[in-house]
């Protein structure tokens, strides 16, 4: 995959920006708690405002990419990000709350652009491996981003950390603008950079937002809820055992095994249905509740970790495959919104289950959410045949979290 022209610089710039986007919630949390000396609830409100903005802005920015082109949208998002992160250390809390929502609304759409470009740059035979590799970069950003923010915050002020996160987001957006990757395959209408996007015909939403696409978006929402729930269940389990300091290690094991799972799955010669991968992910999550200390919990999350990146990659692939070229930006934006909503709702739902019972019920609730989403996706996808998709560079259409500590915008 790295030998595909343009793929290596695209993934490298994407990794830089996604690591920063993954860490933006942590950076804001530490700024509110440490610099403003306010509660975690106040910090959570700022992060919620950012997440709500991301969820609402994803489809709008995707639609703008379809209509106006990549560089126009990047210009409209990079500048606000620069202003927001530059002013974070001087904003009072109420202003920060509103500014965070605006920053989320205009978050640089790195994920959506990367996925669109991958669909345009690869053949049908390459796409599963390419999207698996894209999911692996998402997992690496999830491991690296928040960790660096926490380490840096211990050495410098939270305001400086916020500047660093903002600088990385701006650099990633500027880098993508310089690369200007194709968002349409060569044989799709209006192939090539910005002019191609503007020339591409735009189909009506009802032509592609049908049961199969709704099924995939539902499964993307479900896997985000599941992953958010797993994060919370890990912390709750170790807190009850008096071992909460080991949570970072358990989460790291989870992330590393997801990277391994993505690499292995991308190399396999045959795909698995998205609903089956998600169902298996839900099933292997439930028994993790039997672990009561950190060594056993490290072992218990391996199964879920191995299935995480493959499931995310299949969701990404199906969204790109079902979306026609002229609406691919909006479709990937909807996927990002579904993931953001899933991550926002997953923790409260699983937290309610934990409060009503024991920490182990968090893993059960997260697993059942995955199983329910898989079943719903399966039933919806069986309701009607997928709408005919436009040809891609391979003669078939192509194929995405956000986020978190697992920040929604990272996958």
TrEMBL record:
Residues 401-411 have a biased composition (Polar residues). It comes from Streptosporangium longisporum. The keyword rRNA processing does not apply. This is MFS transporter. It comes from the Bacteria. Pfam families: MFS_1 (PF07690). Keywords: Membrane, Signal, Transmembrane, Transmembrane helix. The lineage of its organism: Bacteria, Bacillati, Actinomycetota, Actinomycetes, Streptosporangiales. Residues 383-411 are annotated as: Disordered. Residues 1-19 form the signal peptide.
